[in-house]
Amino acid sequence: xxxxFLSVLIFTSSLLFFQCGKLYxxxxxxxxxxxLTDELIQKYVSAVKALHKLGSDIPKQLAEKGESEAxxxxxxxxIESIIKDAGFKDxxxxxxxxxxxxxxWNVSQGELGIQKFQNMKDDGLKQIEDTLADPSVPEExxxxxxxxxQKITDDWSHxxxxxxxxxxxxxxxxxxxxxxxxxxNQKEIMEAYTGIPQNKLKEIDxxxxxxx
Length: 212
Hints:
The chain is mostly helical. The chain has helices at residues 2-31, 38-55, 58-65, 69-85, 91-132, 139-170, 176-184, 186-194, 198-204. The chain is elongated, with a radius of gyration of 24 Å.
């Protein structure tokens, strides 16, 4: 049974590697020539915010004009006009920039999520350790606390393993330069994606932001 299982595992891993390799190749071909800069991100943010406003008007236009080829072309022209007004050459350029920004954004948010869970784990373990060091806490309670500590540690190790595998797959779709640009402009991008002002987002959850 072991040799069969090992063969299946090797085949599955090879297939996954091949599929990822094709994905990386397609991605690089599609975004070739695009280098993220602070200025480009500002244009991107302006375009996304404007597209948000148009998006809420699309159902109304479809209801009034009907879902026809002419209506679709008119909507596309409106979308491309917004994109050009933001400083992009055309729709195709915006799509390439969007791909670069989106993947770098996803990776940065993945890293942020892992860090947040690690902080929660570390805080939880510290609280347990502090309680275990308290001589006034009964031994019966400490037994349960040690079990809870072990469960937290085991759950973290299990989840972190799969998180690391996922991140290892998506990281090749960005690079350290793009991640630096994304993190530097994270607040503006978050505001553009959600349509919620930065001050409101901070009220909802201050930990959403990588930078202060």
